[in-house]
Amino acid sequence: MQRRTFLKSSVALMTIAIAAPVLFAGHARADAMADAMAVVEKYAQKVTAWDGPTTGPKAQPGKTIVVLAGDLKNGGILGVTTGVEEAAKAIGWEVKVIDGAGSIGGRTAAFGQAMALKPNGIVINGFDAIEQAPALEQAKAAGIPLVSWHAGPVIGPDEKSGVFANVSTDAMQVSTAAADWAYADAKGKPGVVIFTDSTYAIAIAKADKMKAEIERLGGKVLEYVDTPIAETSQRMPQLTTSLLQKYGDAWTHSLAINDLYFDFMGPSLAAAGKAGTDAPINVAAGDGSESAYQRIRAGQFQKVTVAEPLNLQGWQLVDELNRAIAGEKWSGYLSPLHVVTADNVEFDGGPKNAFDPENGYRDQYKKIWGK
């Protein structure tokens, strides 16, 4: 992937992380800092070159598809849904969106509704596909192709679930970048609380990677918190207060598998006398929600999100379904990620509060489809 360094390099942002006391504390810490800085720098730059597919089947006409949204309150899921709707309009398809509303029962009911519509394709958006195993079997028996976003730890075709293509950035790179930023920002001495949700295999994989990366670099994980992402509005205020009482100033950074955890921390932090840029500093390993961009821009209880190109991924999902319907293989495309900070928040879609790469992806997909 070709990338152009922006004028305010993220190295400038991170100068606090290479202060002399850290660099000269020993070769091991200096090397760890250099490694962390290199990862942050790599993913904080502009994305201007298209590195996705350039060939594929023309648009299959007159199709109707269903988006099964795990929970439209989740900014990542909402962003992908919007991208699917935009791409479907461009390719000439009809889209129906059904919200699973954040519960297994809701998603089961949504899948049933989708099957009743007899669509030409289904997008599983933001929940583990294997959770709905009986419905997956029904879809396969009916010959309805399935694509997904964040439906499991495997990127691309998933034979176990029958998904034609699971679309995602590299979740392990996302987690590494988030952990590395926290390590560097803490001058090599982070005290980290990690937030995840064991309902989702990919969430556990991301949290485990962040924990391993912090410990590999020599930082400390204070606590590994498993709390349902669908219940963050109820749980996070009191949980934040309890963690502050337990760890005090030792809690320097939060790492979460999704921005949604930080949507509900601010009031509790403020009540404890914390200003917007005080520790604990919040860093999200996905997905780059609108509220996260707003917090980063305003300096209010979040400094970083490692964003995914949600709208682009919506376009990719439509392209993958078009390939499935046409009887071709998946594209093999792995979408880029972006470390979003106050210094680069205005690039690559930032004014729209989203990571929307300026790499011409819309025109590229339209060209493939003959539109």
From TrEMBL:
<dbReference type="GO" id="GO:0030246">
    <property type="term" value="F:carbohydrate binding"/>
</dbReference>
<dbReference type="InterPro" id="IPR025997">
    <property type="entry name" value="SBP_2_dom"/>
</dbReference>
<protein>
    <submittedName>
        <fullName>Sugar ABC transporter substrate-binding protein</fullName>
    </submittedName>
</protein>
<keyword id="KW-0732">Signal</keyword>
<dbReference type="InterPro" id="IPR028082">
    <property type="entry name" value="Peripla_BP_I"/>
</dbReference>
<dbReference type="GO" id="GO:0030313">
    <property type="term" value="C:cell envelope"/>
</dbReference>
<feature type="signal peptide">
    <location>
        <begin position="1"/>
        <end position="19"/>
    </location>
</feature>
<comment type="similarity">
    <text>Belongs to the bacterial solute-binding protein 2 family.</text>
</comment>
<dbReference type="Pfam" id="PF13407">
    <property type="entry name" value="Peripla_BP_4"/>
</dbReference>
<feature type="domain" description="Periplasmic binding protein">
    <location>
        <begin position="66"/>
        <end position="329"/>
    </location>
</feature>
